[in-house]
Amino acid sequence: MVNKVNILLSSYNGEKYIKDQIESILAQTYSNFHLFIRDDGSKDGTKYILNEYKNNPKITVFYGDNLGFFASFLWLLNNCDQADFYAFSDQDDYWYPDKIETAINKLKNVSNQNQPLLYCCNADICDANLKLIHKGKPTKYPFSIVRTIVNGETGWGYTQVMNDRLRQFFLEKKPPEYIKVMGHDTWVHLLCLCNGTVIYDPDVHVMMRRHGNNTSRQEYHGGNIILHNFWRLREFLISDKGKDIYNEDKIFYTTFLNSISEDSKKIFYLYMNRGKRIKKVFYRKRYRDSFFDELAIRLLFLIGKM
Cβ contacts of residue 90 below 8 Å, gap of 6+? Predict the structure, then answer.
């Protein structure tokens, strides 16, 4: 049996790049998929572009009011047809032809298919014209609950493919629609870390396009990662972003309290509170891959900003 895959794309003012992304999806080597698009109240020409695909049997388009990307993706998860697997798609990236086929093969190789499963992969960083900024670097250290709740370390949504068990597990707890910091992809990733298996593919199967108007939270400043890192540090020192992260960690914890293990609960309890600074500063495993990020996070713990 060939497993069915639903691809979920939320669009908003994406007229410049959305056609490239749709065409890259239609060019996938894995053919048993359906693309569900929800336009989140675009005010530019996005709807006219989407209308060009109204007769394509592999695409269904919905039009709605502006909900924000978290709620828009949540709506898609709730309202698409049932499938074996589900993939998130941003409107402005570009998928290599083997993206879905590779993900499904990796997911089907897991022995226990009754648990929540999530696949994510590496990605190249490109400019607005898909010119390479830098090659994707594989994650050096394993994903963990700590790395995710502290700083959102996750497999980004545009690379994620989940099984139906994870989708059902996520939706049955009715997650809130309005989240400011953590994205839909972070919530799905974190839930799977608590209850299932996350598969990380170090190979590149996606081009992530950076153009200055991305809705995702990882926009680089003109491709300059050093400036981006200083901007992120400033967010914690001046804007107290750590408080927003803690608040949303607590929302996640409250939502899925009865669905996560006791060991996971202990991790949440430790990192949702700003006490026990020294224990966090001398945590024996890595919080982040890069030395700068690692040093910055431990400093923020020390001075009580996380």
Answer: 9, 21, 157, 158, 214, 215, 216
**Which stretch of DSSP H or E encloses residue 121?**
strand 117-126
Distance CA 175, CA 64 (A): 20
Residue 298 near residue 287 (C-beta atoms within 8 A)? yes
In the beta sheet, which residues pair with residue 8?
Answer: 36, 88
Position 65 scores a pLDDT of 96
| Spatial contact of 121 and 201, defined as CB atoms under 8 Å apart | yes
Instruction: Mark out the alpha helices in the chain (DSSP H runs).
Output: 18-26, 46-51, 69-79, 99-108, 145-151, 164-171, 184-195, 225-237, 241-255, 262-271, 277-281, 291-302
Q: How far apart are CA 235 and CA 110, in angstroms?
A: 39
Compute the C-alpha angle 109/115/121, nearest 5°: 50
* 241 backbone φψ class: left, alpha, beta (φ>0; ψ -120 to 50): alpha
How many residues are given for the chain?
Answer: 306
For 80, the 3-state DSSP assignment is: coil
The tokens 């809130």 sit on which residue? 176
**What is the pTM assigned to this prediction?**
0.88
> Which residue numbers in the chain have pLDDT < 70?
178, 180-181, 212-242
Sign of CA dihedral 14, 170, 269, 278: negative
If 0-12 CB within 10 Å is exposed, 13-18 middle and 19+ buried, where does residue 258 land?
A: exposed
Q: Are 185 and 167 in contact (CB under 8 A)?
A: no
